[in-house]
Amino acid sequence: MEKRQFRDYTISLYHQGFLDDQFTELKKLQDECSPDFVAEVVSLFFEDCEKLISNMARALDQTGNVDYKLVGSSVHQLKGSSSSVGAKRVKGLCVTLKECCDSQNYEGCVRCLQQVDIEYKSLKGKLQDLFNLEQQIVQAGGRIPQVDI
Amino acid sequence: MAKKPLFFFLILCGSMVIVVLLMFSRFGRSKEETGSCNGEARVLYKHQNVTRSEIHALVSLFSDSDQVTSFECRKESSPGMWASYGITCALNMRLEKHETTESFHGRRVAAQCFIPDGELPLDLNPSDLSHSISSAAHMCDNLEQSLEQPKEHKNVEEGLDWDLLSYLRNTWWCLILGILVCHRIFVFHSKTPRERQEKVYLQEPLAQKKQQQCSQTNSRGAGKWRKNILLLGVIAGVSLSVWWFWDTNEEIILKRRETLENMCDERARVLQDQFNVSLNHVHALSILVSTFHHGKTPSAIDQKTFGEYTERTNFERPLTSGVAYALKVPHLKREQFEKEHGWTIKKMETEDQTLVQDCVPENFDPAPIQDEYAPVIFAQETVSHIVSVDMMSGEEDRENILRARASGKGVLTSPFKLLKSNHLGVVLTFAVYDANLPLDATEEQRIEATIGYLGASYDMPSLVEKLLHQLASKQTIAVDVYDTTNASGLIKMYGSDIGDISEQHISSLDFGDPSRKHEMHCRFKHKLPIPWTAIIPSGLVLVITFLVGYIFNEALTRIATVEEDCQKMRELKARAEAADVAKSQFLATVSHEIRTPMNGVLGMLKLLMDTDLDVKQMDYAQTAHGSGKDLISLINEVLDQAKIESGRLELENVPFDMRFVLDNVSSLLSGKANEKGIELAVYVSRQVPDIVVGDSCRFRQIITNLVGNSIKFTQDKGHIFISVHLADEVKEPLNIEDAVLKQRLALGCSEPGETVSGFPAVNALRSWSHFKTFYSNESHNSDKIKLLVTVEDTGVGIPVDAQGRIFTPFMQADSSTSRTYGGTGIGLSISKRLVELMQGEMGFVSEPGIGSTFSFTGVFGKAEANSSIAKLERFDLAIQEFKGLRALVIDNRNIRAEVTSYHLRRLGISVDIASSLRMACTSVSKLGNLAMVLIENDVWNKKDFAVLDELLTGSKETSARVPKFLLLATSATLVESSEMKSSGLIDEVVIKPLRMSVLICCLQETLVNGKKRQPRKRRNLGRLIREKQILVVDDNLVNRRVAEGALKKYGAIVTCVESGKAALAMLKPPHNFDACFMDLQMPEMDGFEATRRIRDLERRINKKIASGEVSAEMFSKFNSWHVPILAMTADVIQATNEECMKCGMDGYVSKPFEEEVLYTAVARFFESC
After folding, report:
1. Which residue, B30, B54, B284, B1143, could crosslink B50 as a Cys pair with Cβ 3.0–4.6 Å?
2. How wide is the angle at C-alpha B646 spanned by C-alphas B644 and B649, nearest 5°?
3. B1015 in reach of chain A (CB within 8 A)
C-alpha cells in the first residue's frame, strides 16, 4: 500500500517537473555505505537555497542600488546545486532569474525570486512527504521500490 | 616562321652578288682581249708577208667575226665547233684566242647554271650550294680540258683557271659566312619570343597583362624591324637591277665605241696606205720621166708611150684618176716650146667651173704671160684633155708646183672640183729634177734643178668608195673625209649626211704631205639599238625582287595579323580567366554572406518548432526548416565549388582513421538506405593503414556525396558497397591478395552471385582503367600512400549519352533527373575537384539498369606510428575486451561474409566463414571455443539452426562458454528478427550497416549479459579509481557533496575544498592526490586560474628536480609532477573545452556527473597506473 503510494508520488513528482533524472542518479549513489545520502544532500540543498535566496532578497531590497553581480553569482550557485540535486523547476527558474539579472531587469528579478522561493518551498514540502513515506516503508520493514520513470 | 623566307632572301641576294661578280670578271677579260687586238695585228704584220692594209683588213674581219661567232658560241657552247673552224695558219693564234674567250662563255654558262639553283628558295642549304658550285666548277674543268688541245697556251689557261677557281672559292666562303650569320640572327630571333611566351604563361593574370603588353610592343618592334629589312632588301634588289642595267649598258656603249674606233682607224689606215702606194708610184713615175725623158736624148717617151705606160700601170695607183707630166718652161723659152710642140700654152679656166667641164683644151685661152709656165706635155688617156694646159695658171696647181719643187716631195692640193669629172679631188704633184741633184740640196738648188712636174689627180669620192667597198661592215658605218689644213674651214672631201652624228670617231690621215692635214670621221649609220642584253636580266632581277618582296610583304603582313590575333586571344583569355576568378570569388563571398543569415533563420525555425504549435503550424515550420536546410546545403556546395575554383580551398593535413570516417558515413546514411531497403556495406582492405594523414572532412564529403548519389538513384533493391584499397593492390590484377577485391575484379556483372546484395553490379575495374596516374610508378614516396575508393551501387545507372557531362557542375544526366530524384548536380563536380586536390582522379563506369561504380584515388600521408586519435580511445577498452575471441560467420555470399569479418577483425576477433548453416554444422566441431556465431538473415532457417544450436550447446560441458547467436539483419527484416530474439532463439540482432560502435554495443550487451553489465562496469570504474586520492574543488556545497558522493561510490578517497586558493594549497607538491576535479566558475579564483597556478608550481618543482636541486625522493614517487585536473562544467561547448586545455587541464566532465562520462574521463589517466 505504502509502496504503491510511494511509487505514484514519485512518478507524479517527476511528471510535474519537480524532479529530473539527476535525482535518480542521486538515488543510485545511495547504498549501504551511505544510507541517508539523498536526504543529506537534499537538506544541504535546502539550506543552501535558504541562504542564497535570502542573500538575493537582501540585495534586491536595496532599491536603486541593486548589486546584480551578487545576485548573479548567487543565482549561479543556486542553479548549480539545483541541477546537482535534480530540482528541475527550481533550476528552470534559476535560468530565467539569471537572464533577468544579466539584463538588470529589476521587476523580473523580484518576480522570479518570489517564484523561486515558492517553488523551493513546495519542493521541500514534497520531498519531505516523500522521505516520510520512505521512512514509513522502511519502518514497516519493506524495501524501497525502484521507480523507473 | 618569318625568319625562313628572310633567310632564303639573303641567300638569293648572295647568289645574285656572285653572279654579278662573275660577269664582271668576264667583262674585264673581254676588254683585255679587244685591247690586245691591235698588238696581235702588229705581230701578224711582222711575221707574215702581207701588206699592212691586208693585215688590217684581216684583223678587222676577224674582230668582226669574233663578235658574231662569240655570239654563236654562247648559244651552242660546243668546243668542237672551233676545232672544225678551218682557216689558214695565220689564224691559229686568233683561234686560240677565241677559245679562251669561249672558255669564258663556258664558265658563264656554268655560272648561269648556278643561278637557278640559287633561286630555288625552299630546299637550299649550304651543301646544295656547294654542290652546285662544285658542279659548275666541274663543268668549267670539262670545258678547259676540251679547250686545252692547243698546247701552246696551256699555261696561260691554267693561270686563268686558277684565278677563276680561287674566285669561286672565295665567293663560296663568303656565302657560307653569310648563311652562318643569318642563321645566328634567326636563332636569336626565333628563340626569344618563345622564351617570352613561356614567361607569359607563368605569370599571374595581372602581371601577365603587363608582360603581354611588353611582348606586344616587342613583337610590333620585331614586325617593324622585319618590314625595314624587307624594304632594305627590295631597295637593294632595285638598285642592283638598276646598277646591273647601267653597267651592262655602259659596257655595250663602250664596246660599240671601241668597235667604231677600231673600224675608223682601220679605214683611215687602209685609205692612207692605198694613197701612199699611189704616191710612191707617182714618185716612181716622176723618176721614170726624169730618166727616160730628160736623161735620154732623144727622149724615149712621147705622149703615146706615156699614155700607154700610165694606162698599163694604173692598177698600181688605184686612187688616181689620171697622171700628167708638165714641163717647166720659162717665159724666154715659151715661143721655142710652142713651136716645138705645135700648140700654144693654154690657160686653165677657173673662173667658171661649169664651163671647164665641157670645153675642150683647144677652146682654152692661151696662157697669159708669166715668168714661167708648166704646160702639160704628157698625160694619161683619162686626162688627155689637159695636155698643153699650163698648170701654173691654176691657182691650186701653181701653189702646188711651187711647194713641190721646193720640198722635193709629193705635195697635195686642197680638195677642189676636178675638171671634167666634177668630183672633189686633190692633185698630187711631184717635181722632176735634173738628174744630178745632190741629196742634201737646198731649196734654191731644188728650184733650179727642177725640170718638170708630174701630177696625179685623186678622185676622192670614188677613191674612198672603192676602198670602203673592200672592207667589211660597210653598211654599218658611215665615213667622212675632211681636209683640215685650214682649221677654221673644214673641207669635206667625201661623205654623206646619214648616220648618228652624236657619236663619231675621228682618225687622222697622213697622205705624205706634211703641210696638208686630213681627217677621217666615222660614225654608225644606225642609232644604238635598244640594249636588250642589259634590259632583260636586270628587268628579270627587278621582277624577281618585286615578286619576292611582294611575297615577303604578304608573309609579314600575315605574320603581323596572326600575331595581333594571337595577342588579342591571349588578352581575351586572360580577361576571361580573370572574370572566372572574379566570379568564383564573388560566389564564395556571397555564399558566405548568405550562410550567416540562413543559420539565423534555421535556428529561429528550430526554436519555433520547439514552442507549442498546432499541427498545421508545425507542418509549415517543418517545411520551412526543411527548405532552409536544403538551401543551406546547396549554398555550402556552391561555396565549396567557388572556393575550389578560385583556388582558395586548401586541404588539411591531419591524421585520421579512415575506417572511423567510413563508419560515420555509413551511420549517417544508414537511415536513408534502410528507408529504401538498400544494403549498405563498407569494406577497407587490410593493407590500408589505420591512421592516414589527410583532410578527413573532405574525404568524408566525397564519400558522402557519392553514397548519397547512389542512394538517391537506387530503387528499393540491391546494395551500395564502399570499398577502400591501396592503389598498389589493384595495379597487378593477377596477384591480388585481398579476397573481396579478387572476387569483384574477377567477375563481371554477368555473374550476380558475388555482389553484396546479390543484385548484379558493373565491374569496377573499368572505372579506374582511365586513370592517368594510376599505373605510373611516379616517385614512390615512402610516406605517401595512394588509396583507391570505389562506391558501387545497383541503381538506375547513367545513360550513355549523359556520361560525358556527369562531372559538369549543375549538369545532371538529364533534365528529368532533378524532377525525379532532386538535387542540383553540383556534388559530383565538387567531389571531382576535391579528388583532384588530393592529387587523385575520379572515374566511373555505369550501365543503365544495372548500376554505377564510381572510383577515385587520393594521396594520403602515412601517420607516424605512435600517433593515435583521442576519439577512438573509448573503443580501445572494448577492443581489448574482445581481443582473441573467435567468431563464426555464416553467410552464403562470400563478399558479404568478408565485409562482416572485416568489421569483426577490427575488434580483434578472429573470424571463420561458413557459407550455410549446414556447412557450419560440419565445421563447428573443428572450431573449438567459439565466442559467437553471426548468422546472416538470408541463410536463416529454423531446422538447420536447431541442429547447430544443439551442436553448440551440446558442447557446453567441454567449453566454458556457450557461443552467442547473433543475427545480421537489415532494417527491412527487423520485425521478424526481433521476434526471433524475443523467442529466445538468438541472443541479439545486429542491424546493418555494420559499424564499429554498433557492433561493440551489441557484442557488449550480448557477451556480457544484462545483469552482469552494470556491476561489471561499476567494478571497472571502481577498479580504476578505488583508493585514489581525489580532490574536488567546488564552491557549491551541494555540488561538492554530490561529486563527493559519486566518487566515493566508486571507492575513491575524496577530499573537498571550496575555493581555488584552497586547492592551490592542497596541490602544492608534494601531495598525495591522484586527480583533481575542479569547478570552473568560482568566486575569487576560478578553475582556469587555479589550474594555471598549479601547473606553474609543478613546473618549477619539476625543474628543480631535473636540475638536481631537490632530490626526487623527497617528492615521493614521481619524477615529474603532473596531477590530472579535470574540469567540471555545465556547458560542454567546444570553446570552453579549448580553454580548459589551454590552461593546462587534462579533460572535462560535464556536470552533473554521469557514470559513463566520468568513467571515460577518468579511465584515461588511471589506465596506465
Report:
1. B54
2. 40
3. no
pLDDT digits (tens, 9 = 90+) for A107-129: 888 888 888 888 888 888 888 88
B49 pLDDT exceeds 50? no
Q: Which of B1053, B1118, B1043 is nearest to B1079 (CA)?
A: B1043
pLDDT (average), residues B438-445: 77
Give the whole-angstrom CA distance, residue B1110 versus residue B466.
Answer: 154
Nearest to B1044 by CA among B1036, B1060, B1055, B1035: B1055
The tens digit of pLDDT for each residue in B791-832 reads: 988 888 888 888 887 887 766 555 565 556 656 677 888 888
For residues B741 and B755, what is the distance between their CA atoms, to the nearest angstrom?
11
Q: Are B729 and B685 in contact (CB under 8 A)?
A: yes
Helix B996-1007 vs helix B658-676: crossing angle, to nearest 10: 80
B963: preceding bond cis by omega (within 30 degrees): no
- Edge-first strand listing for the sheet containing B477-483: B491-494, B477-483, B518-524, B504-509
Asked if B1075 contacts B1165 with a C-beta cutoff of 8 angstroms, the reply is yes
Hey, is B683 helix, strand or coil?
A: strand
- Contact (Cβ atoms closer than 8 angstroms) between residue B501 and residue B523: yes
* CA-based nearest residue to B408, from B448, B371, B373, B372: B448
CB–CB contact B1153 A34 (8 Å): no
Interface touch A84/B1048, C-beta < 8 Å: no
pLDDT band at B569 (very low <50, low <70, confident <90, very high): very high
User: Are the beta carbons of B1077 and B1042 closer than 8 angstroms?
Assistant: no
Question: Strand locations in A2-145, DSSP E?
Answer: none
Q: Look at residue B30 and tell me whether its pLDDT is greater than 50.
A: no
Q: Between residues 1036 and 1075 of chain B, which touch chain A (CB distance below 8 Å)?
A: 1036-1039, 1041-1042, 1045-1046, 1048-1049
CA dist B205 → B201, B578, B647 (Å) = 9, 7, 14
pLDDT given at position B755: 74
Residue A36 has pLDDT above 90, yes or no: no
Average pLDDT over residues A57-73: 80
Determine the distance in angstroms separating the CA of B1128 from the nearest CA of chain A, rounded to an integer: 11
Domain residue ranges of chain A, discontinuous segments joined by +: 2-24+51-139
Residue with cell 654608225: B524
Backbone φ, ψ for residue B290 (5° rounding): -65, -35
Residues 40-99 of A with CB under 8 A from B: 40-41, 44-45, 47-48, 73, 76-77, 80-86
Tell me, yes or no, if A37 comes closer than 8 A to chain B by beta carbon. yes
Q: Is pLDDT at B269 greater than 60 in this prediction?
A: yes
CATH number for domain A2-24+51-139, candidates 3.40.50.970, 1.20.120.160, 1.10.565.10, 3.20.20.100: 1.20.120.160
Contact assignment for A37 to B1045 by CB distance below 8 Å: yes
**What is the torsional sign of CA B366, B367, B368, B370?**
negative
| Partner residue facing B1152 (CB), from A31, A40, A83 | A83
B512 and B409 in contact (C-beta within 8 Å)?
yes
Q: For position B567, what pLDDT does the model report?
A: 94
Return mean pLDDT, chain B: 72
* Helical (H) or strand (E) element with B389: strand B389-390
Each residue's pLDDT tens digit, B451-488: 888 888 877 777 777 777 777 666 677 777 787 777 66
Q: Pick from B1036, B1053, B1056, B1085 the residue to mutate for testing the A interface (most A CBs within 10 Å).
A: B1036
Strand partners for B308 = none
Look at residue B928 in the predicted model and tell me its pLDDT: 67
Beta bridge partners of B520: B481, B507
The DSSP secondary-structure symbol of B960 reads S
How many Å separate Cα B309 from the centre of its chain? 100
Tell me how crowded residue B1125 is: count the other CB atoms within 10 A of its CB. Answer: 27
